[in-house]
Amino acid sequence: MRSREYLMTATPYCILTKMGLCLFVQDGGSLPPKAAHAFGSSKTGEMRASPLAVPANAPSRKKRLELDDDLDTECPSQKQARSGPQPRLPSCPLTLNPPPAPVHAPDVTTPSRLGPYVLLEPEEGSRTYRALHCPTGTEYICKVYPACERLAVLEPYWRLPHHGHVARPAEVLAGTQLLYAFFLRPHGDMHSLVRRRRRLPEPEAAALFRQMAAALAHCHQHGLVLRDLKLRRFVFTDRERTKLVLENLEDACVLTGPDDSLWDKHACPAYVGPEILSSRASYSGKAADVWSLGVALFTMLAGHYPFQDSEPALLFGKIRRGAFALPEGLSAPARCLVRCLLRREPTERLTASGILLHPWLRENAIPAALPRSRHCEADQVVPEGPGLEEAEEEGERDMGLYG
Known about the structure:
By secondary structure, the protein is of the alpha+beta class.
């Protein structure tokens, strides 16, 4: 008999184990052709899991041109009406019955059981939880979405073949109200590394940036525009912090053809391209991703953003003009690559696949053991901190990357 510790309520679930699909429904269901092709065969059964309450004040995962935690200013939300049709996702093909009303909803500050996982405390103000896989003791990150978004959340993974620098959920549990995606817990992210290390030596920066560019090129090749691309979205899979993956495809836009035109204004202010700030009806999503990657590269090499100001209007004015000063001491190939990515005209920028062919990355193809950089910029440097994740939010209002 199945253990009762799994749960309080009977809820139908769809389980994707290491992206191999196993469908659990009470009244049957079917998978779309893409899902069946991507995840293989399915089987049916039952599962019990405890409900999880999501904080009422948790922000939506969709962000427009409003301030996120990568810039310490207050920026009014800017939203432009779409001037053309946007691709619409088909309705979700999974047939799931609503679960019976739970006896009570567990407090999110206490551990909650969900199948073989125990969900621990959430990250402040987010829908992300620490999770422990009880059978193995492995720690995961659990991202929680409304169940109505399950197709939008999973479709990018159906579209994208496996790649060494793009993370995929180890398991997905889909209920009638919430979707739970479990990712292996990373060892920090690029944003934290740059805050602690200030400027990175060129060989080390090239080794890390090559992995970031490879992830972007793979996504573009298979019809995904990442949007909202920034250093924080690249996380380390090893304790030595040498191997990077794109943490998820949460904000990716799935293209329906070769045209990558987008209409929505969706980006982090520090990384937004000038064309997104203009009055144009649409813009190239892939070129906007390349601009954001250029901002990331500049920040890795300089220790601060290329465009900075505490006032959003002044910041956006600097981005529109596209004028920035490269730090002294950079090699000519490094300076060339940054300029090739941060061009005001989108059509003049390198493509993601073209970045991998640039001489700077080819010259630094086999980096040696890298010393720690001790260079410190006098203007808006990234501070040293006792703990990456602990000190990051506390210090960002005073100094660092935020102007």
